[in-house]
């Protein structure tokens, strides 16, 4: 039975490459045509493959509907939380998870620092969109025309001397983030707080959330915080893999 299931499932990635006829399916599986036909008929009955008028098979609409339904029911916060807690236990600093919704970047999870100095961020509250590291990551993933339109509409409050001053500077920062794959806020919102953030990606490679580690200068310097980047990225890769159902290698 397990071999039959394995063979049936092996048909799906083949058809993802494009329509294939019975002979091609049989050759790929290394089975007789009668066996391949039996598997295809079963998949067809469940709507997972479709037989075209030219007698070739392609992926069925039911498969896409199931995938869409599964994606809609995924909760990135639920998946990420245990990983955020482990990261916090390893580094001791404040860990955030944020998403982009309706032109705002919102914190949806937070694990507090073990140190006495605490951050004022709150779950459900918008972040300082022009300076926050998580915001830069989420906005950098938008199509270029959307990035430019958004940059022109934003206000640019100078929270500190390191805050992003204008749309041109903001767009340059987003270009840098897109190229390097991570973002920082080094005293841009609060002089004494530094932050490094990395993306969490879905199966299509799009950024679905951003996570960050933040700490005050009195605990670690900005350079010391940046040494945690590999650890933070491994955490994000683990969350991305669990969220998307793909291995870290497939996410590259």
Which short descriptors sum up this protein?
252 residues; alpha+beta; Beta-Lactamase; five-stranded antiparallel β-sheet; two-stranded antiparallel sheet; 11 helices; 7 strands; elongated; DNA-binding transcription factor activity; Tscrpt_reg_IclR_C
Summarize the structure.
The protein contains eleven helices and seven strands. It has 252 residues and is α+β, with helices and mostly antiparallel strands. The longest helix is centred in the N-terminal third of the chain and has 16 residues, at 76-91.
Explain what you see.
It is a single chain. The chain has 252 residues and is α+β, with helices and mostly antiparallel strands. The protein has 2 domains: 67 residues, Arc Repressor Mutant, subunit A; 171 residues, GAF domain (Beta-Lactamase, 2-Layer Sandwich). 48% of the residues lie in helices and 18% in strands. The chain has 11 helices and 7 strands. The strands form 2 sheets. It has a 5-stranded antiparallel beta sheet, with helices on both faces. A two-stranded antiparallel sheet has the order 1-2. A hairpin with a 5-residue loop joins β6 and β7. The two termini are 34 Å apart.
